[in-house]
Design goal:
Six copies of one chain form a homohexamer. With 73 residues, chain A is an alpha+beta fold. Helix content of chain A is 15%, strand content 40%. Chain A has one domain: SH3 type barrels (Roll). Chain A has one helix at residues 11-21, and strands at residues 26-30, 35-43, 47-51, 59-62, 66-71. In chain A, strands 4-3-2-1-5 form a five-stranded antiparallel β-sheet. Chains in contact: A-B, A-C, B-D, C-E, D-F, E-F. Strand 5 of chain E pairs antiparallel with strand 4 of chain F, so a sheet runs across the interface.
Chain lengths: 73, 73, 73, 73, 73, 73
């Protein structure tokens, strides 16, 4: 587990925070090629929490497994 | 091995802890694409412990190898 | 998350900074084989931010997932 | 190389230690999908040492490459 | 990003430095199986800089993504 | 780059050192599935140095990319 705190001065952390606050629809691609669409709900140093639809349960995506995040639409 | 202690203030650690306490049926996907269904029994900084059924033995899943965890059903 | 600050004395950080400043068209290859063309807009210790065209939204590429970056043209 | 010492208070380290002491037959799956059956002989922070049969030589498995360990039988 | 300085007492750093100084033609294989031929120009803790031919632009190869480096010829 | 020194008290480091000293023929498998046969010449925290035959040049194998090492024969 990565126990470092998130550093809010980093542009990546801030960009993710913006996408979380605005519930921006995103496509997230993992390093195994899996792609998922949805909105982010929170980030911590180890995971991103995602819902693929508003009524879906939260799912956790390993931050180390993230290859690419891009806004949809 | 990751020797950092788990930080219970992180939402990812707490979410996993909730799933462990409630024995939530989960699908866990590894970065090689392997997917497994089951319930979590404990977490530590290196592994998640999973049973694919209540009478099955515990198996260990490398935390670094986790790509995605999602509740089933 | 990698919380180390970027070290501007490293040639890799400086090379990326040059490509960012000059908006050099690049091909970026991830460790899953995904390749993307575009220009870099910023770097932080965890992500590179890329636009595939000037009017496209920023996308984030996990720095650990980068296998190869090469100038195009 | 991971130079941290193993922390015997972690349940993952203890579970592995149990399997080592009891020579539990295990299936070990690596993140490239390779699966091997055998018993563990020792663990250190970088490797697990495995024999696929009692008279086979020890082989080393990179701890970071472990995706899944499950008891057989 | 790896912010550790390179340690010139390590044989791997020295071997790479020799190949850089002598412009030894090398084959570099990444963990996704991509192979590239060329000469190294510098190393830092995060990247190796490579030219596939003397007039080609520098390209950056993620050090964590390197599986194998072997001299050609 | 891993800048930690090798810890000779670890059984994995010692096992590798034995194989280096005795020039034990080994099969080394990387996490992308590549397999190579040869003898080890040295280890450092980032790389293992291998010759596939006594007259071949040294090649470097990223320690993080190692999935499995097993003696041949």
């Amino acid at each position: 587990m990565e126990s470092h705190a998130l550093d809010p001065s980093l542009p990546g952390v801030r960009q993710l925070q913006d996408w979380i606050r605005e519930r921006t629809p995103l496509q997230l691609q993992l390093i195994d090629g899996t792609a998922l669409g949805g909105c982010l709900y929170w980030q911590d140093p180890e995971f991103l929490a995602l819902k693929t639809s508003p009524e879906a349960p939260l799912l956790l995506m390993g931050r180390r497994a993230v290859a690419l995040i891009r806004p949809l639409g």
